[in-house]
Amino acid sequence: MSTLIIRFSPISNVAMLVPLLESMIRLQPQEKFVIVSRTFLQPLFVSLPNTTFVGTDPRNEHEGIAGTFRLFNTLKKLDIHKVIDLQNSPKSILLKMLLKASNFSIEIHTIKHQWIKELLLFKNGYKRSKPLTSIFELYNQCFLKAGLLTDDKFTSLPGLNATIPEKITNLYGEKKGTWIGIAPFAQHYGKILPSKKIKEVIAYFDKQPNTKIFLFGAGEVEYEMLSDWETLFNQTFAVYTSLNLQEELELMHHLDAMVSMDSANMHLASLVNLPVISVWGASHYCAGSLGWKQSVEHIVENDLACRPCSILGRKRNKRCPLKYKCLDIAPQKIIDKIEAVLQQSRKN
């Protein structure tokens, strides 16, 4: 008998499932779990015991209604007795209906979205609104209804190498000094700093002795930009296409700090216990999406009452009266925060 957990996307929200899932496995070792998510995210779950991963390909095999039926045909063979839907989308709703029709004894539990609270936060700004319930707590509420306990003791993904894997050392050399990761992009415009500013941050640390910079991104356009930046600096490397997701996690595990926008890389770094200097623009951490055990002291932002003008950073208001002052963050603010985090880690 297994508990099915559905969370297709986005990457950040799938990554945020991992700490709570690890604690459920530890606290309820008799339970077995089936995770349904995007195929390329399997490395996030492969090291967890009592866990079966079922990958989906929403653009091909599992596209549309026919693809959902194909996914159902796979899942109905897995002796599922509980379904926890953390997506609550048309696709997951249809999948639940099919599973319930195939076995009426299956328990169904669904996450509750905060549509009204999100609307008020968007309308009034964070200074006149209460912080939203964090994604972790929303997940936890759903798990409790399913009779599953969690805790906050997760620190890092199990199974990561204590030493740097050979492939990484072959590409970037042995670690001698400070390694810093920088993820300068996000899915939506309102979260992305102007490239000139982030390049100033890279330039500063590229000149520091015994320091290497690793640029993380996804997609062909981002890779082309990062590859161009790689040629501008001496000790800066574009990671994308050189490493798969599991290898990226291994690399993050051996970094000293990560700089990330409000994006998936903040959450991936959190899974390997890496301190993240997170940079926030149109979105805001009071919407409940700060990385696992990441400190608000490591956040870099412009404290504007109009934020967030979008929960996800998706909506771009071309008539912004402040001309995107939220993204006009001085590179020195980021540099100072990185230096403080590095100094703190050296003391520890």
What does this structure look like?
It is a single chain. The protein is α/β, with parallel strands linked by helices and 348 residues long. It has two domains: 144 residues, Glycogen Phosphorylase B (Rossmann fold); 182 residues, Glycogen Phosphorylase B (Rossmann fold), CATH 3.40.50. Helix content is 36%, strand content 15%. The chain contains twelve helices and eleven strands. The strands form two sheets. Strands 8-7-6-9-10-11 form a six-stranded parallel β-sheet, sandwiched between helices. α3 crosses α4 and α8 crosses α12. The longest helix has 17 residues. The relative contact order is 0.13. The mean pLDDT is 93.
Strands of the widest sheet, in order across it, are: 8-7-6-9-10-11
Distance between the termini: 44 Å
Overall pLDDT = 93
Radius of gyration: 21 Å
Find the CATH superfamily of the largest domain: Glycogen Phosphorylase B
What general form does the structure show?
Answer: globular
User: H/E order of the elements?
Assistant: EHHEEHEHEHHHEHEHEHEHEEH
Oligomer: single chain
CATH class of the largest domain: Alpha Beta
Helix content: 25-40%
Secondary-structure content class: alpha/beta
Any descriptors?
single chain; 348 residues; alpha/beta; Rossmann fold; 2 domains; six-stranded parallel β-sheet; five-stranded parallel β-sheet; 12 helices; globular
